[in-house]
């Protein structure tokens, strides 16, 4: 059984007479990356601040390693690190900025210097060490902020939309660097983002916060594949998200084993062995099973059974079991035309281009996998 | 490194500040480098309570060492106290705080018990303090006189007149420019009493201006404006080099400026330093003190500024009653 | 104009000969006003940080009070302090009247609102998230305050300059509570006042020149520090 590094019990956060966040229970497990997603103003940042012991809830209790934090907040804060949206560097040199947290925590001078140098190099900003923090670019500032957080060698790392202020390419490369660093260090991490792809990329588990409430929490794939209500569904895009294993790759085509099926995807670059396969429901075409399969360019044709049909306005959401759960969305018109019913045998068709692969470096620890059916 | 420097600077300033505050109540006997004027080996007067000593042995054994002397700015400006006070401090061991303000304020301080001893020269107003018991033991110390100064041209034609009151009448009739202290000081009170005797009220007249300031400053104003002004002789002598004004009327007994010393009543006010106040008052009328007063001359003219009067009665020096 | 030339010449003579106890008076001016500014700084930082960082009901009222305090007529402050410290007043038994300590008190009351106002404004301008980030880095409240003050060093220096200017140029209150006693509580401003009253204008001008020079030097030093930090 995994230990909960941090846990929340029945907390309410109040601001100016209103409850802005209410969470009956949430755990952050040792070694995992917990992604927190939700619309703006939902309370994600507040949740992170409660976990970071920066905000005291009006009611309820936070526990660190099963012990209540009351009275130990400062000590525990010094075992964690927080990276916020704005790097908020001080008016000193880059090296001094990275050293600040270490100095506050009483790390001796020689070790401070070592750690500062190591992490500045790790995030490629060692050449800026002596420069004034006010004279570096936005992207460089974010790297310094990363270095500052990692240099603390914390037991828990909390990040609040750390890259949302950056342009797309910079953002993507920083996400990759963060992924690598997280995988190296095995840090327990809480990562708030409004970008679902980042959540997919980094999170082992996902917590969905909507309207000041924790709507759903669970393994990433599960939450994305099976949102618990409409709001969560729109947040996650109601996509098909399943884990898979790359079994072959040639000529720009990758074969991925998902359950008992094999899916072909167009993929550039190196793909890791463990992947998440993501399919958008709009990309899936349903055809009635026939003896003669029409020739089509779509490389993926999977036979399955309709499990459930949910009308959504003028569309219908069709859940198909092809050995793994697949979500397609079709027009109501098509639904009627084809006369689809639950239990019916169906073929789900989609192009190799429609398959979105997300690499997973960190093999999730087997106990976790067993415990949560990944 | 820079941080350390600033921290140290801060610390130094803080320590200095603390030092200042701690030493705020300065009880040491002060020795300013003013030589004892003419007082040589004269035996001290038999001032009760003060043991005779050829060498100056501080006599203060218990109680506060500070003595607050309330006096007037003109007295301080004459420079007399710069000579007398250090000698007294050395002899007695007391530390005198000379608070020089307007006559009105000095007397008010006496009535509130905010001073220990008063050296003032407004006899008419001093009566009130004796009557209500705020001050005790009023004694005549010395006198000098007031003079009426004016432009050499003398538009009011008062030069040489023997009656101060009459000369003011002429100033009034000719509407000549006149500057008054207007600050309730001894000089001011005298001036007001002269107008009263002349049964004239100059207030509000265009040629009559009140400065509200000390004698020195008011003299300068009169000088700039070629105006008439009543001034004490000491201040005039001290400033005569800077002035174009000349002495026009002097010698009238009514122009006497009489200085008395009074002790603030320690029975009426808790915090008053009774022994200290008494010691200073005694010193002012002692032989030694009186001798120093008589020997004090104006630097430029060499003329004595005050006439020592201790032991005489007020009537003897020309006043109608002890309070004017 | 002659008066000013005479004054300048007299100033040089006084400095050379040390007449009028000029060095003692100058040092005393520096110490008294310096102490007042240091105390004001401590008060100003404490109060300024409290009102800048905390939201509470009467916050705007407190801000207006501080701003009003900046415009307090020094002579009124002097009168009020004197009334309290006189023997006839409630604090008479402290025997502080006519001592340098009393002058420090009066000058502190005059300088404190200035320093507090500047400090509060400077701290208010800080990004509130910075404080959160500092707590997250592991700062205690005191450490956070120290770092934040270091970040607002420039406006704080301005506060010190303004406060010092207010304190050292003060004459009415200092004379009233100090008594302008030679060798005890006489400072440059009260000495100027005294000499003007006596009609000794060359000396008064000389002392004024020295006072101006002192203020200039102090401000020069502080400004140099400020400029260095800006780089």
Task: Give an account of the 3D structure.
- The complex is a heterotrimer of chains A (374), B (324) and C (231).
- Chain A has helices at residues 44-51, 73-77, 94-104, 109-122, 138-151, 168-185, 196-202, 220-225, 230-236, 332-338, 366-372, and strands spanning 4-15, 18-29, 33-37, 59-64, 67-68, 80-83, 156-160, 188-192, 205-210, 213-219, 240-250, 253-258, 261-266, 274-279, 285-288, 300-312, 315-321, 325-331, 345-350, 356-359.
- Chain A is an alpha+beta fold.
- Chain A has a 6-stranded mixed beta sheet with strand order 6-7-8-3-9-10, with helices on both faces. A 5-stranded antiparallel beta sheet of chain A has the order 13-12-11-14-20.
- In chain A, strand 16 and strand 17 form a beta hairpin.
- Chain A is globular.
- Chain B folds into 2 domains: 36-144 and 256-317, D-Maltodextrin-Binding Protein, domain 2, CATH 3.40.190; 145-255, Periplasmic binding protein-like II (D-Maltodextrin-Binding Protein, domain 2), CATH 3.40.190.10.
- Chain B is built from 11 helices and 10 strands.
- Chain C is mostly helical and 231 residues long.
- Chain C has a single domain (24-186), classed as MetI-like (MetI-like fold, Orthogonal Bundle).
- Chain C has 11 helices and no strands.
- Chain C has helices at 2-17, 22-53, 59-70, 74-85, 100-124, 128-137, 141-151, 153-168, 172-178, 188-198, 201-230.
- Chain B binds chain C through residues 10, 13-14, 16-17, 20-21, 23-26, 30, 32, 64, 66, 68, 73, 77, 82, 97-100, 112-114, 213-217, 219-220, 238-239, 242, 269, 271-272, and chain C through 31-32, 34-35, 38-39, 86-88, 92-93, 95-102, 104, 179-184, 196-201.
């Amino acid at each position: 059984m995994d230990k909960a590094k941090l846990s929340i019990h029945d907390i309410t956060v109040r601001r100016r007479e209103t409850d802005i966040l209410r969470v009956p229970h949430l755990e952050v497990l040792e070694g995992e990356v917990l992604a927190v997603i939700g619309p703006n103003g939902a309370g994600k940042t507040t949740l992170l601040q409660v976990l970071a012991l920066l905000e005291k809830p009006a009611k309820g209790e936070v526990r660190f390693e099963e012990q209540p934090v009351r009275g130990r907040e400062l000590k525990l804060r010094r075992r964690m690190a927080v990276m916020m949206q704005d790097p908020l560097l001080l008016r000193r040199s880059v090296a001094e900025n990275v050293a600040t947290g270490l100095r506050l925590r009483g790390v001796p001078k020689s070790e401070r210097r070592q750690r500062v140098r190591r992490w500045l190099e790790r995030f490629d900003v060692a050449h800026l060490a002596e420069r004034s923090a006010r004279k570096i670019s936005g992207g460089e500032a974010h790297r310094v902020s990363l270095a500052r957080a990692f240099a603390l060698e914390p037991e828990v790392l909390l990040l609040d939309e750390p890259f949302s202020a950056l342009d797309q390419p910079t953002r993507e490369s920083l996400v990759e660097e963060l992924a690598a660093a997280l995988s190296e260090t095995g840090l327990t991490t809480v990562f708030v983002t409004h970008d679902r792809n980042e959540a997919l990329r980094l999170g082992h588990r996902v917590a969905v916060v909507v309207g000041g409430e924790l709507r759903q929490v669970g393994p990433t794939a599960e939450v994305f594949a099976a949102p618990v209500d409409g709001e969560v569904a729109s947040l996650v895009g109601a996509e098909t998200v399943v884990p898979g294993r790359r079994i072959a790759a040639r000529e720009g085509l990758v074969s991925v084993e998902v359950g008992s099926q094999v899916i072909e995807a167009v993929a550039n670059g190196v793909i890791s062995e463990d992947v998440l396969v993501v399919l958008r429901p709009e990309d899936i075409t349903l055809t009635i099973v026939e003896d003669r399969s029409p020739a089509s360019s779509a490389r993926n044709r999977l036979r399955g059974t309709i499990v459930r049909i949910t009308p959504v306005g003028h569309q219908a959401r069709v859940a198909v079991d092809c050995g793994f759960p697949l979500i397609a969305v079709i027009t109501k018109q098509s639904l009627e035309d084809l006369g689809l019913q639950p239990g019916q045998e169906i073929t789900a068709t989609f192009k190799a281009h429609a398959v979105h692969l997300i690499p997973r470096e960190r093999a999730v620890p087997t106990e976790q996998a067993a415990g949560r059916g990944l | 490194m820079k941080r350390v420097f600033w921290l140290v600077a801060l610390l130094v300033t803080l320590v200095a500040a603390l030092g200042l505050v701690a030493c705020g109540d300065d009880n040491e006997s002060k020795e300013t480098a003013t030589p004892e004027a003419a007082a040589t080996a004269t035996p001290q007067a038999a001032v009760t309570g003060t043991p005779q000593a050829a060498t100056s042995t501080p006599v203060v054994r218990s109680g506060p060492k500070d003595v607050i002397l309330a006096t007037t700015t003109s007295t301080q400006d004459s420079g007399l106290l710069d000579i007398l006070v250090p000698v007294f401090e050395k002899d007695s061991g007391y530390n005198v705080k000379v608070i020089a303000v307007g006559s009105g304020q000095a007397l008010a301080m006496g009535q509130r018990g905010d001073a220990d001893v008063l050296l003032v020269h407004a006899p008419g107003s001093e009566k009130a303090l004796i009557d209500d018991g705020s001050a005790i033991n009023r004694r005549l110390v010395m006198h000098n006189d007031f003079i009426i100064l004016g432009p050499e041209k003398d538009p009011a034609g008062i030069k040489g007149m023997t009656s101060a009151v009459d000369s003011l009448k002429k100033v009034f009739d000719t509407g000549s420019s006149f500057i008054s202290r207007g600050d309730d000081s001894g000089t001011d009170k005298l001036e007001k009493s002269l107008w009263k005797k002349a049964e004239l009220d100059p207030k509000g007249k265009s040629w009559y201006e009140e400065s509200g300031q000390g004698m020195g400053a008011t003299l300068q104003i009169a000088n700039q404006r070629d105006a008439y002004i009543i001034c004490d002789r000491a201040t005039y002598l001290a400033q005569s080099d800077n002035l174009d004004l000349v002495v026009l009327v002097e010698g009238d007994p009514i122009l006497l400026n009489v200085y008395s010393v009074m002790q603030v009543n320690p029975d009426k006010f808790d915090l008053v330093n009774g022994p200290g106040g008494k010691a200073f008052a005694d010193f002012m009328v002692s032989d030694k003190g009186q001798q120093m007063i008589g020997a004090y001359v104006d630097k430029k003219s060499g003329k004595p500024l005050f006439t020592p009067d201790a032991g005489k009665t007020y009537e003897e020096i020309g006043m109608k009653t002890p309070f004017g | 104009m002659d008066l000013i030339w005479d004054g300048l010449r007299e100033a040089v003579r006084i400095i050379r000969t040390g007449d009028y106890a000029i060095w003692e008076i100058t040092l005393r001016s520096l110490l008294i006003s310096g102490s007042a500014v240091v105390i004001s700084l401590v008060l100003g930082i404490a109060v300024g940080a409290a009102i800048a960082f905390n939201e509470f009901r009467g916050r705007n009222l407190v801000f207006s009070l501080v701003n009003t305090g900046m415009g307090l007529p020094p002579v009124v402050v002097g009168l009020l302090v004197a009334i309290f410290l006189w023997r006839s007043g409630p604090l008479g038994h402290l025997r502080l009247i006519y001592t340098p300590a009393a002058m420090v008190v009066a000058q502190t009351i005059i300088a404190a609102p200035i320093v507090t106002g500047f400090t509060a404004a400077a701290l208010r301008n800080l990004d509130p998230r910075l404080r959160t980030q500092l707590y997250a880095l592991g700062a205690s409240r005191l450490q956070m305050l120290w770092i934040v003050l270091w970040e607002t060093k420039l406006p704080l220096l301005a506060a010190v300059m303004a406060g010092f200017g207010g304190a050292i140029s003060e004459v009415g209150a200092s004379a009233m509570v100090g008594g302008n006693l030679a060798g005890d509580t006489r400072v440059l401003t009260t000495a100027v006042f005294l000499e003007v009253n006596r009609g000794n204008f060359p000396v008064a001008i000389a002392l004024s020149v020295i006072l101006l020079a002192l203020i200039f030097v102090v401000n020069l030093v502080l400004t140099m520090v400020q400029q260095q930090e800006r780089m």
